[in-house]
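dumping this here before i forget
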Amino acid sequence: MVSTTSPGGAPLPPHATVLIAGGGFSGLGAAIKLMQDGTTDIVVLEKASDVGGTWQANSYPGCACDVPSVLYSYSFAQNPDWSSSFSPQPEIYAYLQRVARQYGVMGKVRLGTKLHDAAWDDTTKCWRFTTSAGSMTADIFINATGPLSEVAIPEIPGTEDFTGEMFHSAQWNHDYDLRGKRVAVIGTGASAIQFVPEIQPDVESMVLFQRTAPWILPRRDRTFSSLEKTLFKRAPIFQRLARYTTYWYRESYVIGFTQVRPALRIAEALGRWNIRRQVRDKKLREKLTPDFQLGCKRVLMSNTYYKAIDADNSDVNTSGIMRITKDSVIAGDGTEHPVDCIIWGTGFHVSDTAIAEHVRGRDGQTLADAWHGSPEAYLGITVNGFPNYFHMVGPNTGLGHSSIVFIIEAQLRYILDAIKQLRDNNLATLEPLPEAQDEWIDLVQKKSQGTVWLEGGCNSWYIDDKGRNSTLWPGYTFTYRKLTAKADPEKHLAEARV
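structure:
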């Protein structure tokens, strides 16, 4: 066993009870709850230079959360200092840094340490890890790398020939001065909606390559008053009340997405009004008006995006991209757009995440082999054939309406109960029975039928290569919380420790 010092400082131990991969909301939450539950022999691997996960990586101009601030924190560590109702990235990043230090997690974290490979050893009943700082083993593996950690850049002919500046929104080059530059933005996802209005006033020209027009609703953001922040801090019951009411308001979205889809027409009318009030040109309005039902793709929010697109130095091309040359982007309609910089706003690998190629369970089968492009996990957490493995924010746990932190805390409660069963019953392994996993997948797919995500008339990253919803939880978060309250022994295969 090789053990070396990680860039984060302390060396990797030869063995730990639990190894957690990822230092974002999921990984930090897991470390905190494990330590509170008495499991202190843990190691957290974080490939970046600091904790924070996606909120450490994504620092592009205008980056902010599209979930209300009062919902976007751990329930046990609510933040009274949010500046506004939708918190900006620097505040969320600072919040996670502060919580990690407040709960004493940083001593468990190995920064700048990337997980290369994880393999289950059925002889010794442990996980073997290869990392950028050496190798080690652990009894339990919690994969908290998250679905928004690996950028997706489409393969377009000529990309490698481009001689200008080029970067993904999640790898923003802050040293590159965009002032006076000709810029191509490829993609119109959540990130582009936020950074486009920030850079548009400074660039000489900007052409936005849009494959599908998203639904964008007004962003009802406001600054919290000093009185509100004082009340949140000195009388936390007020923040808990704000969190409670906001939570139930957000849960009501599920009704439109899953049960009463005609109700979405009201929100669609608001989206069309949002276009009309900011876009003067009728032809441009047509380009920017979605042709699918609201909610089929992720619903976005902005008060400034359309105005930026309607500016004199902006253009929208919807014909696709034919190829990229050394100094231009050639659109599908044959028009050539000379540019100095290309910014990819093309999102992340979600259903085809690369880490699935590097997690090997029993008999050496990888997650990618087990999934065949259509991820499956019992309760979105455990996978048959992968003992003592817990996948946070796994298949069918994403949300289209509320805070993923609620799902994370529900999963943590389940994981802690599973680890308690391992410990109290002297078990060597725990994994879901194949029939339990199949029953869960059937339930999820039945709940998905008739929803806007499958029948809303769009192609989205919610749907995998097999046409199956393997990303979203198609229901209420309180239902998911109830289903994950305990690790049911009857749903699991367990081996006693010899």
